[in-house]
Structures are given as structure tokens and as C-alpha cells.
Specification:
This is DNA-3-methyladenine glycosylase I. One of its GO terms (biological process) is base-excision repair. It comes from Coralloluteibacterium stylophorae. GO terms for molecular function: DNA-3-methyladenine glycosylase activity; metal ion binding. Keywords: Metal-binding, Zinc. By secondary structure, the protein is mostly helical. It has one domain: Endonuclease III, domain 1, CATH 1.10.340.30. It contains 13 helices and no strands. The longest helix is centred in the middle third of the chain and has 21 residues. It is globular.
Amino acid sequence: MSGYCDSAPGHPVHAPYHDHEYGFPIDDDAALFERLVLEINQAGLSWLTILNKRAAFRAAYDGFDIATVARYGDADRARLLADAGIIRNRLKVDAAIHNAGVLEALVGEYGSLRAWLDDEAARHGVDRTAWTRAFKRRLKFMGGEIVGEFLMSTGYLPGAHREDCPVHARILAASPAWRRATAGA
């Protein structure tokens, strides 16, 4: 996404995301789940559309609390599909709810979503194909592009920023998982 390093600076919506979030490691489970849901919803749309709807997504999905979303039933599904503030796509809504249930079980097993991702990182390193297979085995609506962007945006795969982008150095200082994986290779 090297073009993002050219187009995001100075943009009122893209710049804060580019400069302070994109590619940085995330510890918080709700923030990781948010990023996953946003990446799923971006499929077929612009990232600007998703960023502009981000606050509405947070409100609609109860702050991306995994346990809460995992318990959504038919009334919640109908509420989400009627919410003009978010993307009203049945497959994407169903994927978010299903994936919350899977992630809740993973949090129960590993202690946190980050711990599960770190375990997967130890197995897959920066092999995008292996990561995609791992995600597709467990989660819905997981194509290679969605998985790749989720992992780049959360520091598990390289490529979020060009090496000459000033943000790249800050990401390296944050010790992203991909950096640890490539250092050990």
C-alpha cells in the first residue's frame, strides 16, 4: 500500500489513521476485533467510506466487545441490517457475529486475541498464504485481501508503509510481529 504513504498525509480522515494506527501492533481485543470487522466491511468499498462510518460501527457493534457481539441474536441482526450508519450487508453482518463467537472461544483458550495471533505468527511468520488458510478454517468472509490487510494493519505482516515513510520507523520501534518473524528467519 505504498500509495497510501503518498495520498494519506494531509488528508483529514486518512492521515490520522495512516500516521497513528495503520501497521502498529494492537494489544486490545476490542480494537483487534474492530479492525477485523472494518476490513470485512471494506470489501468492495473504499477505505474512506469505512473510516467515515467508524464511529457508527462502534456504536452499532457495542464498542466491538467480542462477548457481547457473540451473543447477538435475530433482533440484533435485524437492527444492524436496518442501521444506515454502517454497511448493511447480510453476509458481512453474519460474518461479524459468527466471527465474534469464534474469537470469544479463542480468547478463552489463549487468554486474549493478541495471544492467539502471536501463536499463529510463531507458526506462519510472514507467509500470507498460511495465514489466510488459518483464518479461513475458523472465520467467515476471510479472503486473502481481507486477511492480508487485517494482518498488515495490525503489525503481523509487513508492507503497511514504504521504508522511506516516516511512520515506518515508528512501527519498527513498536516491534511488530512481522519484524520479530523476519529477524528470526
